[in-house]
Design goal:
Number of helices: 9
Helix content: 25-40%
Largest sheet: 5 strands, mixed
CATH class of the largest domain: Alpha Beta
Number of domains: 3
CATH architecture of the largest domain: 3-Layer(aba) Sandwich
Number of strands: 13
Strand content: 15-25%
Strand order of the largest sheet: 2-1-3-10-4
Structural class: alpha/beta
Order of helices and strands: EHEHHEEEEHEHEHEEHHEEEH
CATH topology of the largest domain: D-Maltodextrin-Binding Protein, domain 2
Radius of gyration: 18 Å
Shape: globular
Length: 288
């Protein structure tokens, strides 16, 4: 394959990710820039325009239509159910999965501070830590969010996004995993191709990080079993144990953060670990 056509969103972060995949593959690439529903409605809360998938559907369609060979996504943006005709052929790497505060550390936020984030998961966990906090909506690409930051006491974004854009100096605090579990697959990249494109699948297999892929599979299975999306305060993080099993920690919270349930599970099979955890926590969904 001489020139790989890579479908991507047009933001600086999305382009960085697409170019990163091209670099890992070691070949020439042509970016096929696609505008998604989420990009077209930057001031509307994600849950109001369809929830999970609003940043990927049009990018995926470019591959299905034959306009691109692969699609590069932030893995957290993918719906938990597989997309017909496509396969996640590679999960090459994962950056810092933690959430980050910009503008202030958590301890330095004054009583009644306003924290901006469009994520119900982040709001619920912050509310559990600091019931006095108020919240405001925050949408847009990373630069837009940073530009809006002075209007609030703090904003919450993904550490990985700032790291990849060389903006890590804007981070006031990386929230520990004991304080806040991340979104499913946060910090990971996912590369899709057509499920019948054997040549491209073989090419992508060379850059697949097996342990990272297994962790993401476990997290996605957890979310799929719960039947949740970004309108539900759910978080998870998985990793591989020294004996080769996949261990996953998960969280379900009420919107106000008054109920936060955490549990963990492990299994040699990644998807089984995720489903087992979801089944063990299913009762918590009734509490939220």
């Amino acid at each position: 394959m001489s020139v790989l056509r890579v479908a991507t969103r047009g933001s600086a972060l999305a382009r960085w990710q697409a170019e990163r995949i091209a670099t890992l593959l070691g070949g020439d690439a042509e970016l096929v820039v696609v505008s998604t529903t989420g990009d077209q409605r930057p001031d509307t809360p994600i849950h109001a325009i369809g929830g999970t998938g609003v940043f990927v559907k049009e990018v995926q369609q470019a591959v299905l239509d034959g306009r691109a060979d692969i699609a590069v996504h932030s893995a957290k943006d993918l719906p938990s159910e597989p997309s017909p005709g496509l396969v996640i052929a590679a999960v090459p790497e994962r950056a810092d999965p933690r959430d980050a505060l910009v503008g202030s550390t958590l301890d330095d936020l004054p009583t009644g501070a306003i924290v901006a984030t469009g994520s119900v998961r982040r709001r619920a966990q912050l509310a559990a830590l600091r019931p006095d906090l108020g919240f405001a909506e925050l949408r847009g690409n990373m630069q837009t969010r940073l530009d809006k930051a002075p209007g609030f006491d703090a904003i919450v974004v993904a550490s990985a996004a700032l790291d990849r854009l060389g903006l890590e100096d804007r981070i006031a605090e990386r929230l520990s995993l004991t304080k806040m579990l991340p979104q499913i697959a946060q910090g990971a990249l996912a590369v899709e191709c057509r499920d019948d494109d054997d040549a491209t699948r073989a090419t992508l297999a060379a850059v697949d990080a097996v342990d990272v892929h297994r962790a993401v599979d476990a997290e996605r299975a957890f979310l799929a079993e719960l039947g949740g999306g970004c309108d539900q305060p759910v978080g998870a993080l998985a990793g591989t144990t020294p004996d080769g099993q996949v261990e996953i920690a998960g969280l379900i919270a009420s919107l106000d953060g008054r109920i936060v349930v955490r549990e963990s599970a492990r299994d040699a099979d990644a998807a089984t670990a995720g489903r087992t955890l979801a089944e063990a926590m299913a009762y918590a969904a009734d509490l939220t």
